[in-house]
Amino acid sequence: MATATEKLALPGGSNTSVPVIEKDVAVFSEGTITTLSGKEVSVDRAFIEEVAKNNNDRVADTGDMVPLIVGHTSEEPDADEKPVIGFAKNFRVGKIGNLKPRFALLADFLFRSEDDHETARRFPRRSVEIWSKSKLIDPIALLGGTRPHFDLGLLGKSTSDEKIRLQFQLPSEDIAENHMPSVADLSLEELQQFIVETVAGMKTEEEKPADDQLSEEEAAKEQEEESSDEGVEEEKEQEQLQASEQDKIRLQRDQARDELAKLQAERDADKQKLDDLLMRFKKTDREKDLVQLRHRGFSFDITEELDYCLRMSDEQYSKHLEMIEKRYQKAPVGSVIPTAALQSAETADTEAQVKLSNDARDLAIKEGISYQEAKAKLSA
After folding, report:
1. Concatenated DSSP letters for 17-48?
2. Phi then psi for 202, rounded to 5 degrees?
């Protein structure tokens, strides 16, 4: 990695500090990773390009660079925060490897001071934590003696994202270029820490077969649990879908019932209006007939006779008129009959009287009054 310096503000740095920059640091490379559950994740050029773009977009949007920390983040919720000694930015796709060239994600590492840079030089290996769905790196862990390997781990069961932990180490010649510290450069305390980390890495290498066997058993158990959980989830989804369909059918049925009730109410109202109109026609016509019979001298109370006739069918009413002419008494000779009534009786068949009767009927229907009132208006 080439070292350069430039003036820029880093989170947590002083305004006068000049950051140290490591250019073209390889973060991780292409390949295939197997999770603990047995799933394979392919890390190809397209994947690397997407990770680079997403991290660059985040820096451009909020200035949020990827923090560099010593050691991995802890899975314990109460664990102490890892100190940040630098940041990564300017992600891009490059190539590494002399014998097996391959695509890798490169970035620039920025350190607040020479002290932070020296700390990073004592931990030359990188372990990247990638959020698989959002394709974002956060954070990058710097490691010392821990054996480098690709470890894809699920930290928590979040449905929104999944953290992938990738540990990556440059080839030996790159480590030399990155200033792998010599024993002479280390203090007694730093030398003790280096030895502890190296021994821990050796033990990890020796115990690898047992770990692999345990991982396979855990993966099979986890896969079985996932399959069971998926079956339960599918059953719940089916039940929710059926309940939703039933609610939809019930809603449609209620809406149809309401619409039917509305149509029935409108039909009943229209029927009532029609019945009222027909009754008005019947009342006007029959009142006119009874008035003409009175004018001819038949003796009866028009109001009572009209109420009685309105309850009859047309056939019954015709027979009743014939019965009036046959059986009802006429006014005796010499009875006091209004002159206007006598004239109406004498001229009932004239054209003028017929027209007056028709006009009175039409006016009575139009204004909702009785035939006699209508006739009186026309005669006024």
Report:
1. ---EEEEEEEEEE-EEEEBTTS-EEEE-HHHH
2. -65, -40
Q: For residues 219 and 98, what is the distance between their CA atoms, to the nearest angstrom?
A: 35
Structure tokens at 148: 């480098």
Neighbouring-strand partners of residue 25? 107
Global pTM value = 0.39
Report which of 43, 318, 302, 304 is spatially closest to residue 168, judged by C-alpha positions.
43
CA-nearest of 334, 341, 223 to 292 is 341
Q: Which tens digit of pLDDT belongs to each residue from 327-337?
A: 887 766 444 44
The candidate with the shortest Cα–Cα distance to 280, out of 355, 377, 361, is 361
Within a 10 A sphere around the Cβ of 245, how many other Cβ atoms? 10
Farthest-apart Cα atoms in the chain, separation: 158
Q: What residue type is 300 in one-letter code? A: F
As a whole number of angstroms, the distance between CA 119 and CA 134 comes to 30
Helix (H) or strand (E) holding 226: helix 208-295
